[in-house]
Amino acid sequence: MPMFRRPILLILFLLILAAGIGLLALGAFPPSATPTAVERVLPNDRFNVR
What we know:
Elements: H1 7-28
């Protein structure tokens, strides 16, 4: 007697299992973050002509 009678359930089960394994792999080995410089916009009111 097969475990799943409907192939849709088997495919759904395999997709959920693959997603869970993928999330566990991402949690165990997270991607490295690339450092970027923070650029802040300064107001230009100091150099206005009055």
